[in-house]
Amino acid sequence: MSGNTFGKLFTVTTFGESHGAALGCIIDGCPPGLELSEADMQRDLDRRKPGTSRHTTQRREADEVRILSGVFEGKTTGTPIGLLIENTDQRSKDYSKIASQFRPAHADYTYMHKYGVRDYRGGGRSSARETAMRVAAGAVARKFLEQRLGIRIRGYLSQLGPIRAEKLDWEQVHQNPFFCPDADKVPEMEAYMDALRKEGDSIGARINVVAENVPPGLGEPIFDRLDADLAHALMSINAVKGVEIGAGFDSVEQKGTEHRDEMTPEGFLSNNAGGVLGGISSGQPIVASMALKPTSSLRLPGRSIDVDGNPVEVITTGRHDPCVGIRATPIAEAMMAIVLMDHYLRHRGQNGDVQVSTPIIGQL
Amino acid sequence: MSGNTFGKLFTVTTFGESHGAALGCIIDGCPPGLELSEADMQRDLDRRKPGTSRHTTQRREADEVRILSGVFEGKTTGTPIGLLIENTDQRSKDYSKIASQFRPAHADYTYMHKYGVRDYRGGGRSSARETAMRVAAGAVARKFLEQRLGIRIRGYLSQLGPIRAEKLDWEQVHQNPFFCPDADKVPEMEAYMDALRKEGDSIGARINVVAENVPPGLGEPIFDRLDADLAHALMSINAVKGVEIGAGFDSVEQKGTEHRDEMTPEGFLSNNAGGVLGGISSGQPIVASMALKPTSSLRLPGRSIDVDGNPVEVITTGRHDPCVGIRATPIAEAMMAIVLMDHYLRHRGQNGDVQVSTPIIGQL
Amino acid sequence: MSGNTFGKLFTVTTFGESHGAALGCIIDGCPPGLELSEADMQRDLDRRKPGTSRHTTQRREADEVRILSGVFEGKTTGTPIGLLIENTDQRSKDYSKIASQFRPAHADYTYMHKYGVRDYRGGGRSSARETAMRVAAGAVARKFLEQRLGIRIRGYLSQLGPIRAEKLDWEQVHQNPFFCPDADKVPEMEAYMDALRKEGDSIGARINVVAENVPPGLGEPIFDRLDADLAHALMSINAVKGVEIGAGFDSVEQKGTEHRDEMTPEGFLSNNAGGVLGGISSGQPIVASMALKPTSSLRLPGRSIDVDGNPVEVITTGRHDPCVGIRATPIAEAMMAIVLMDHYLRHRGQNGDVQVSTPIIGQL
Amino acid sequence: MSGNTFGKLFTVTTFGESHGAALGCIIDGCPPGLELSEADMQRDLDRRKPGTSRHTTQRREADEVRILSGVFEGKTTGTPIGLLIENTDQRSKDYSKIASQFRPAHADYTYMHKYGVRDYRGGGRSSARETAMRVAAGAVARKFLEQRLGIRIRGYLSQLGPIRAEKLDWEQVHQNPFFCPDADKVPEMEAYMDALRKEGDSIGARINVVAENVPPGLGEPIFDRLDADLAHALMSINAVKGVEIGAGFDSVEQKGTEHRDEMTPEGFLSNNAGGVLGGISSGQPIVASMALKPTSSLRLPGRSIDVDGNPVEVITTGRHDPCVGIRATPIAEAMMAIVLMDHYLRHRGQNGDVQVSTPIIGQL
């Protein structure tokens, strides 16, 4: 109940601080019989890993995950899967300033209020480093969903500060360091980031994530709607300030005749719903979008207070992402995968298995 | 786990269909000793009630709530509070069409896929009528938060289709049928809605909700961040397609120097965070916003299919809100109250009570 | 989390005080498509109902249950099932004494410590009257288990004070007011109870409950072992002080060669395990037993204190069961049914459906 | 929901197989500010450790626990505490027989039915080795309870097969390898165990556990009664077949006048309740007792079947405890500590802190 667990049937519980001994996670409720090895997770971990381009933090973490339990002779056994990533690149440095000051827009101030104590090294528990474990756990969910149901989950950066991707070419997403699906915008992004880094400032971003081939029927009506759980999952990612499903905030100005997705025997004629009706998947692609704020770790000085309430000027040195959104795509995919996995198991528990083969109507 | 419960320590579990015998709810975990009567809930229920202006559905429901347990001699006892609202205005009508057709953008199609059976009368469980119980439960949370912590939760309609409120005058919010805080825009909204009704179409809306005087320290880091739980709560309201905290999607184009809320000994200098840092309340006002889609129950015909997969033209007669957002403000406030209440108890469980009197720094 | 909910996937949440307006319950997670009417529950409610013989309390409650939601056209819809029993026989009486005194061995003292306030009328929430709702909910579970899996759940009184049933003749269980399976002991029990009533004292009892035809594979290893959940469920019944599975406390003096249930291709050769190995059902009958303490509501005076800490002599008048165990058999059956139902759904969620038809080996 | 987590606010989630890479656990919800080091856990781990006398298994495990997170500068931070014990003494051996046979009274058969796959090395997840993590987690709870509330939790072996302890001398408990509180019985136990080992058989045991100085008010009425959660916790320990609270099964033959614990201004006059009334602690010592079955790993041949359903004769060689009860005392204490800790936090969440200093009446 202290918020370190996500999911009801497929549960992911994480631990670990940025500069502690290790990050870890327990996946409970994974169905038995799934072929699983470290390599399945490493692929996604490497996509999130820092230091792969000049546009992300230069902290170098191997982020090598070890499976400690729950897998036997290459297959999941149905028992909890323990995962561990040892922290390797914790530079010893002088933490006295960070220990006594509250960095603006960081969790320093609120953790102190909540707990009366905090591990200030590198942000401690509030560091986005924690998301490595989500990516590892998401890889397990993703593999199951793909093998069992043919679900494909993919994300991309749709906007970096003022620059919007205008084309969605999935082939391009992994051809550039931004997960940008519009090749034409990549040079602009490169230039923008280079200028930003020089300037010492940071910028926000928007990530979209799409799940295709999701069978209709997943999601619990009322409080645990599929979209509500997705909003929960995505908003729980560090720096996220907004979540949309389907048409999202555009719905505000839409008329009913425009928004409603009409149906024909061949399928839906539009997808303003983003694949969710009444909280339950419709068989259309699940489409979500999230806003990430600019990172607050800047070398440009900011006004703040110290732990005694005195005014201070804070400068954050060290290795930080000038745009945390750049590495967020694999995290968003992972959270989408975990949500869908959890809802698949929940659905199967109450209602029996989904009909994979014969949707009533086709997909858009 | 079937999604009809919200909250971990202050839990709200609802039941009931739109045209069934009754709606009900169990509030579990309410602290003992709170003075409580039906009147406390009725005030908010009446604000959500249909039929109070020509701009909402003309269905007339008394929505009179009865407390069946958990209150003794005018005070909560700490045992579960059972609430009941009997349904009174269920017109007997011919449901044969609605039984055999899937209304576009409704939950008909997805419920059928999920359960293989559905109560089609008035939308059954997927009807927004269910939210009456959230409002009743929210009133309990709100009262506790106000009395114990001095928290004030208020919402308003910030946009109705293309018309945006430009002033935030809390006094105005209850002076018009829209919960609009900008008196100058009310005539425009009136005219817009009249035209829309004539046209037979519907429109979306945006609701903002603000909690003031929230002590710093509420919220669980990682998955159950205060903002993540809020996103979950708001996205679980019927018709909601997007949620923002603080600067929300504007964060995408903000630079770090602009977004980060600097602090001085006198308080924060801005509130882009919306009162939440690292998932934990900062003592600033909690600010959330949500987008509601236009209602899909239209008398303008729409293409769809019947239960056998044949094409049909669907016309929805009956009494429906042309803008579901108009009645949504009390629901958003209720969900905000439930989230804060739950997190207050969760915080108190792990960390002991909050320091109400002496925040380190003042509020903006 | 305030303990009024049982189950993880098939959840039962109850509310209501002994002398309040009503008792109620929400069953969430029930699979759709189950034929269900009030009559299905009434049968078991009537078995638990007081006043059916001279050996139980003469309080007369109709205990008529109403289904308020979740059932449509005679079948469950998968949405929450709201149940209500209005209290009818609350005699108005003078509660001033009971309000100011703590009855020995009652929850008066502990509720007061916990909540600082209590509904003292008839025991309030701590009254065994609450178990009516468990019986109603258990009837739903029982019906599903029987229809879907062929599971049969039956209980009986195996001991009433010093008198032990020595034969297990299921036909006899419903031929006497004690649920005693040994007809020869009934006259002795009748005489014992008559003497006890005259004396003004009360007595304990032991109830056994057996589930047959449970498929192997139900139960979660480690903390939510099937037997651990059963122990939880049975110990949560008012007045229960001990729970055994299979050989129970006899295991203490058994040697391994005696206790271990050997297997042959035709089945197990004994059932000391009580149908559970490593926390998971083995396909053998699940066998549990529980001890109920004598009721503490006696007209024989007992020493106690009042709310101010002064010594008082407490005499409990009113209508009470001299042996609460007599009416406990349907409650034990109900809790067993709820546990098995919950574990069936949990199993199906993680592992897919059980193989009903082809157990590896036969049952004993 | 797959049963590897215990607790609602103070949650313990474990992973790991007997012969896998490591055992681990995440403690979530621990209050911040508690001084904690590995040594606090090691003390209890060493008490449970195998190989400390000739009467337990000769498997040698260092059982050295590492804290991986949640502790900073010697104090808990309120974030999850990750614990790890690497497995060191996994002898490589021939598992072909154990892989193809179901050992009688083991979880082999049921795991296979549940998951269709199992890690058969040393019992895999069903091995009592998992309880090492419970002991580690329990040590954290125990330390908090002691420091914050002055609660003391102690257990002892009250019966080993036919030999009952007749005196309760706490000083003796740690003076012998059995946790026996009656020094006079120790030689008899030694002789009994030596004979048993020679014989190749095993025997059951009974463990009692007592918590003193528990404040009144802990426990949630109805389903999560303190005694129900205790029964759940104790029954979840490997080999446990029965649980009693207070008078337990003796209640069956007690009359109400005998069982009810009368109160005077100086305190209770007896403790048949075992410290729990209506599911809530009364301030008296919490007293529980549990039965452990004899271990089923015997070198004396037993009839069973193989995975193909053919009859086989099973002989279990290797290093096994002839009486699993001998090492169970620290595990029972740990589970009691976790239950009390969880209920303390749950109580504090809903009701605010307990009054530690001024119980209304004294303890017995």
From TrEMBL, chains A, B, C, D:
<keyword id="KW-0521">NADP</keyword>
<comment type="similarity">
    <text>Belongs to the chorismate synthase family.</text>
</comment>
<keyword id="KW-0288">FMN</keyword>
<feature type="region of interest" description="Disordered">
    <location>
        <begin position="43"/>
        <end position="62"/>
    </location>
</feature>
<feature type="binding site">
    <location>
        <position position="278"/>
    </location>
    <ligand>
        <name>FMN</name>
    </ligand>
</feature>
<comment type="subunit">
    <text>Homotetramer.</text>
</comment>
<feature type="binding site">
    <location>
        <begin position="293"/>
        <end position="297"/>
    </location>
    <ligand>
        <name>FMN</name>
    </ligand>
</feature>
<dbReference type="GO" id="GO:0009073">
    <property type="term" value="P:aromatic amino acid family biosynthetic process"/>
</dbReference>
<feature type="binding site">
    <location>
        <position position="54"/>
    </location>
    <ligand>
        <name>NADP(+)</name>
    </ligand>
</feature>
<feature type="binding site">
    <location>
        <position position="48"/>
    </location>
    <ligand>
        <name>NADP(+)</name>
    </ligand>
</feature>
<dbReference type="InterPro" id="IPR035904">
    <property type="entry name" value="Chorismate_synth_AroC_sf"/>
</dbReference>
<keyword id="KW-0057">Aromatic amino acid biosynthesis</keyword>
<dbReference type="InterPro" id="IPR000453">
    <property type="entry name" value="Chorismate_synth"/>
</dbReference>
<dbReference type="GO" id="GO:0005829">
    <property type="term" value="C:cytosol"/>
</dbReference>
<comment type="pathway">
    <text>Metabolic intermediate biosynthesis; chorismate biosynthesis; chorismate from D-erythrose 4-phosphate and phosphoenolpyruvate: step 7/7.</text>
</comment>
<keyword id="KW-0274">FAD</keyword>
<dbReference type="GO" id="GO:0008652">
    <property type="term" value="P:amino acid biosynthetic process"/>
</dbReference>
<keyword id="KW-0028">Amino-acid biosynthesis</keyword>
<comment type="function">
    <text>This reaction introduces a second double bond into the aromatic ring system.</text>
</comment>
<keyword id="KW-0456">Lyase</keyword>
<feature type="binding site">
    <location>
        <begin position="125"/>
        <end position="127"/>
    </location>
    <ligand>
        <name>FMN</name>
    </ligand>
</feature>
<dbReference type="Pfam" id="PF01264">
    <property type="entry name" value="Chorismate_synt"/>
</dbReference>
<protein>
    <recommendedName>
        <fullName>Chorismate synthase</fullName>
        <ecNumber>4.2.3.5</ecNumber>
    </recommendedName>
</protein>
<dbReference type="GO" id="GO:0004107">
    <property type="term" value="F:chorismate synthase activity"/>
</dbReference>
<dbReference type="GO" id="GO:0010181">
    <property type="term" value="F:FMN binding"/>
</dbReference>
<feature type="binding site">
    <location>
        <position position="319"/>
    </location>
    <ligand>
        <name>FMN</name>
    </ligand>
</feature>
<dbReference type="GO" id="GO:0009423">
    <property type="term" value="P:chorismate biosynthetic process"/>
</dbReference>
<keyword id="KW-0285">Flavoprotein</keyword>
<dbReference type="InterPro" id="IPR020541">
    <property type="entry name" value="Chorismate_synthase_CS"/>
</dbReference>
<feature type="binding site">
    <location>
        <begin position="238"/>
        <end position="239"/>
    </location>
    <ligand>
        <name>FMN</name>
    </ligand>
</feature>
